């Protein structure tokens, strides 16, 4: 049984030279949670890794496997499989490190 949030969607857009993330998560009860984060980063990949590390480090989010990651470019959204993969891998690496340090 799931006890933490599941990230459902990640929307990324560049605004005023910074990367803005809208994270849509679902609670175990099914209630949605929307959060916005902003990161300074030299590129989108670095911003994605920062966001993923922050969410994994909080400990209240457990699932990222089913997320949909979309990037806004020139006013339209598109899915980005490589950034999604980077988000999931970074998240799992941080959670694995946390588990290893806990044991």
Detailed description of the structure:
With 103 residues, the chain is of the alpha/beta class. It contains two helices and six strands; from the N terminus they run E-E-E-H-E-E-E-H. It has helices at 44-58, 81-102, and strands spanning 5-15, 18-26, 32-39, 61-63, 68-73, 76-79. Strands 1, 2, 3, 4, 5 and 6 form a six-stranded mixed beta sheet that branches. Strand 1 and strand 2 form a beta hairpin. The longest helix has 22 residues, at 81-102. It is globular. The two termini are 22 Å apart.
Low-confidence stretches are: none
Number of strands: 6
Radius of gyration, CA atoms, in whole angstroms: 14 Å
Helix content: 25-40%
Which assembly state applies to the chains in this document? single chain
Instruction: Assign an overall shape.
Output: globular
Which secondary-structure class do the elements indicate? alpha/beta
Q: Could you describe the largest sheet, including whether it forms a barrel?
A: 6 strands, mixed
Spatial gap, N to C terminus: 22 Å
What average pLDDT do the residues reach?
92
Order of helices and strands: EEEHEEEH
Report the sheet-strand fraction: 35-45%
Number of DSSP helical runs: 2
What's the topology here?
Layout: E1 5-15, E2 18-26, E3 32-39, H1 44-58, E4 61-63, E5 68-73, E6 76-79, H2 81-102
Parallel strand pairs: 1-4, 1-5
Antiparallel strand pairs: 1-2, 2-3, 5-6
Helix pairs in contact: 1-2
């Amino acid at each position: 049984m799931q006890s933490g949030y599941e990230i459902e969607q990640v929307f990324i857009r560049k605004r005023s030279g910074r990367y803005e993330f809208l994270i849509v998560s679902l609670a175990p009860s099914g209630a949605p949670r929307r959060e916005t984060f902003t990161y300074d980063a030299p590129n989108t990949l670095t911003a994605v890794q920062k966001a993923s590390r922050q969410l994994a480090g909080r400990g209240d989010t457990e699932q990222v496997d089913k997320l949909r990651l979309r990037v806004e470019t020139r006013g339209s959204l598109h899915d980005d499989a490589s950034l999604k993969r980077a988000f999931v891998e970074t998240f799992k690496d941080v959670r694995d490190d946390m588990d290893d340090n806990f044991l």
